[in-house]
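Recap quiz, item 2
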Amino acid sequence: MSLSVRLQHDLPDIKLDLSFDAPPGVTVLFGRSGSGKTTVVNAVAGLLRPKAGRVAIDGWQLFDTDQNHWLPPHRRRLGYIFQEGRLFPHLTVRQNLLYGRWFAPRGARREDPDKVIEMLGVGHLLDRRPTGLSGGEKQRVAIGRALLASPRLILADEPLAALDDARKAEILPYFERLRDEVSVPILYVTHSAAEVARLATSVVALQDGKVVRHGPASDVMADPSVAPAGVRAIGAVLQVRVTEHHADGLTELDAGGARLFLPRIQHRVGEGLRIRIPAQEVILSTKQPEGLSALNVLEGVVDTIRAGEGPGAIVSVKTPAGSILARVTRRSVAALGLAQGRPCFAVIKTVALAPQDVGGRLNAP
Amino acid sequence: MGWLGPEELEALKLSLRVSFWATLVTLPFGIFTAYALARWRFPGRQVLNGLVHLPLILPPVVTGYLLLLTFGIQGPLGKLLGEFGIVVAFRWTGAALAAGIMAFPLMVRAIRLSIEAVDPRLEQAGATLGASRPFVFATVTLPMILPGVIAGAILAFAKAMGEFGATITFVSNIPGQTQTLPSAVYAFLQVPGGEAAATRLVVISIIIAMGALLLSEYVGRRAAARVSGS
């Protein structure tokens, strides 16, 4: 199942002009607010009619302005998860969940309501009305409602942005389950690097209505030029496997042969997962560090150095674990004589690997 | 109702019948017009808005005379209806037509306010879930505006009960045929010794008007509580 998007549209501030093809899995539209992400999703959903363009799912055209073809939203077979939930206040949770299912063609009702209700843990809410639900509960119901419409594509427009951090941590695993257990492709809009790191199969980075980078999450997020939320959002995404839980409260991970240590996480030994390492938590050294309290030291070679506007620079280091990004000062770059091809060591503090940057199970590659 | 004379009772029954049908028949048009005014942007929207409100602003006698010109035996629409054997001039159906048109603006205003209070994004959500426009209206919009629709209907009913000027101009004041409650009050006041009967009808009018208002408040609150889920 693949999605192909080509769009041109004039927004008040920017001109949207982009095209991309999304492979199966979760495609994240990533960019700062005002970059045109929501416009793309609304055009795919049919809630906004773009000036020109074409969108197709597996060759099935949703619209094509060249051929004057336009499917109305209700015939596009989508599941749209909105930022604010948009549950129907006059219906119970059960009626909300089954709303889209009722309109789905009989033969296309793939998802079993009982399974979805169980997966999302909303069984005890079925007879309540949305008004009394917490933000997290509302969003779980919204996910279920979209899924039970048996859509060919799920759209999610910053579904976590209205939630606090605790609620975000509550909802993210459900999106991971959606990615791993349901075969529907997902187009997911966010400006959060942590969400990209945990969910994305591929990333489309938008800036001022244009695609600036497009590719696998680990590649795009390792590119310092893709920094929608400022330098704090820059970070590398590594694919790792849990090797051991140590008695002193640390979990040991294997990252392409290199060892990493994290504060204890819940994942089982042998489980694959993704971690995001923020660039500002990485220190570089040209010599093997000694007498250092940090546990994670990765040996590698400097790949690229990008100087920002301020005193900082982002250095990308190729290590066996993958590309690591480090945010250092330009002065340090000069003092250490860092240049492309120069061997160096990336030092990561253990506690820097925060739980919200640790994702769940990964699809088998 | 033994204390009411046969003529008074007849006027009351006729008024109830006229108002009931006036409300019931105009309600679908009222909902449609309110929806169009609240949600659609089309050329002539302000003209439609003006037309709907005209009966509220025009002297009722003018509205009645215009109705007579259009729906009278010789009027263009009156002739057309006559082809099908329908005559509204000087019949109770004509009284219902006059009452319906006079009550229409109030009904549309109440319903339009409730439609404007519905978040269009909920209707969009319905569409993305596979509901076509009519289904979105039936399953999302209509249940949510129900309090406004009921309030508008009750208000229109009360207004129809009290309609006088347009009715008497259009269909005259024929006992048993077009003599509604207000027309009967007027008629009783024209004859010596009719004050007692007029007073009884006035009391009934007040009771019905107050009852309608209280009922619309009550139903509106109940329905609002149901819709908001509290």
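The domain at 6-228 of chain B is CATH 1.10.3720.10 (MetI-like fold).
The interface with chain A takes residues 119, 121-122, 124-133, 135-136, 139-140, 143-144, 226-230 of chain B (CB under 8 Å).
End of item.
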